[in-house]
Design brief:
53% of the residues lie in helices and 5% in strands. The chain is mainly alpha-helical. The chain has a 3-stranded antiparallel sheet, with helices on one face. α2 runs parallel beside α5 and α6 runs parallel beside α8. About 11% of the residues have low confidence. It binds zinc ion (ZN). Necessary for efficient RNA polymerase II transcription elongation past template-encoded arresting sites.
């Protein structure tokens, strides 16, 4: 293992245990300035993954710096590939100005009462470091595909999304009697429906557990669309609930939940019966650090 890889591994550890944003930024600046990377260095040290994750960090300057580094590394890796393979088109030039500064409103930490729509990059199994664990490569790939769809715009923790992605995959497997042609086409169709931009509440109702995987995998596209309308109503109710929750500010903070966005364990939560009395309680969690919210039943 090269010295760079060892050094980078140490930095990855530091990055993961960094106590605050300043520390993260400090390490990122070292990574940005002091290292020439190759594909194998990135892979062996897992630094690509660690920095990649930070692209969705709640603090915009951290996210931007991470994006800048990932871009720089991508260009370096592409270049190396180009040099290795005969003649390769030159990698597109960066304008050197760093990350694009859009006039977007960044989410303001500490003010969870204002619902902000922070612009984050789409999450995937890859960006979250999630891998299927069935031992069957087709099933793993399908689990990851469902994860991609569920996670894309979600603020929920990795474990919660993974749990439901696995449940969806397992349910399709049992519906289709194993990894059959029907299994593959069903997974593809569910993926398309889940990924539908106009259907965010369908994803959310699965991640939150409101819509059971076993029920979901037996639904027709039409039913999914009507589920969308139902879920949209639920979402409005949930959001109102979240808002009143933030306004009340009466709960104690707990470390029982970890925020998937900022990785802190500073959350408030409340449980409520959102549907009929014989169904499980829904738990609403709000991160007091970055304002991220999610719910599950
Ligand atoms: Zn957070």
């Amino acid at each position: 293992m090269s010295a760079d890889v060892l050094e980078l591994k140490k930095l990855v550890k530091q990055l993961q245990s960094a106590a605050n944003e300043q520390e993260i930024v400090g390490i990122l600046n070292i990574l940005k300035k002091d290292f020439e990377v190759t594909e194998s260095i990135l892979r062996e040290s897992k630094v690509g993954l660690a920095v990649g994750k930070l692209r969705t960090h709640a603090a915009k300057h951290v996210a931007d710096l991470a994006k800048e580094i990932v871009k720089k590394w991508k260009v370096a890796v592409e270049k190396a590939k180009g040099a290795a393979g005969a003649h390769h088109a030159k990698a597109p030039q960066q304008n050197g100005k760093g990350p694009e500064r859009k006039a977007s409103v960044a989410s303001t930490p500490g003010t969870p009462s204002t619902p902000t729509t922070a612009k984050v990059e789409l999450r995937t199994a890859k960006s979250d470091g999630v891998k299927g664990s069935t031992g069957d490569s087709t099933r793993d790939k399908c689990t990851e595909l469902i994860y991609d769809a569920l996670a894309s715009d979600s603020g929920a923790p990795v474990e919660l999304i993974l749990k439901h992605a696995q449940a969806v995959e397992a349910s399709v497997l049992s519906d289709c009697d194993g990894v059959t042609a029907a299994y593959k086409s069903k997974i593809r169709s569910l993926f398309v429906n889940l990924k539908d931009k106009s259907n965010p509440s369908l994803r959310e109702s699965i991640v939150s557990g409101e819509l059971q995987a076993e029920k979901f995998t037996k639904m027709t596209s039409q039913e999914m669309a009507s589920e969308e309308r139902k879920a949209a109503d639920n979402k409005i109710r949930a959001e109102n609930f979240h808002n009143s929750l933030a306004a009340a500010e009466q709960q104690a903070e707990t470390d029982a939940f970890q925020c998937s966005r900022c990785k802190q364990r500073k959350c408030r939560y409340r449980q409520a019966q959102t549907r009929s009395a014989d169904e499980p309680m829904t738990t609403f969690v709000t991160c007091t650090n970055c304002g991220n919210r999610w719910k599950f039943s």
